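Notes from hallway chat w/ T.B., transcribed later so I don't forget. T.B. wanted the structure written out for a chain they're using in a teaching module, and asked if we could keep both sequence and structure tokens in one place. Agreed to drop them here.
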Amino acid sequence: MAKAIVTLKIMPESPDIDLDKVASEAEKMIIAYAGDGDRKKEIEPIAFGLKALKMIFVMDEAKGSPEPLENDIKRIKGVQSVEVIDVRRAIG
């Protein structure tokens, strides 16, 4: 089976939200959904002190859409929105 590299963009409700806490909770959900594969997180400045959290992870393509994971992460306290911004097939 092929692997897919998925990037989620998580927007907090305000600049005061602890992104490390959100990342920790999201990472647990990603591991439960996609397994304990490669993962990476990035912080992206947006504007006026607001920062977005990008979670990048590898999952089995056979799992299908990451939409169930997206919906779970939306339920984390302090998260305003979650969007899949990139899905690529891993080569190698």
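Follow-up for T.B.: The chain has one domain: 3-89. Might be a good example for the class.
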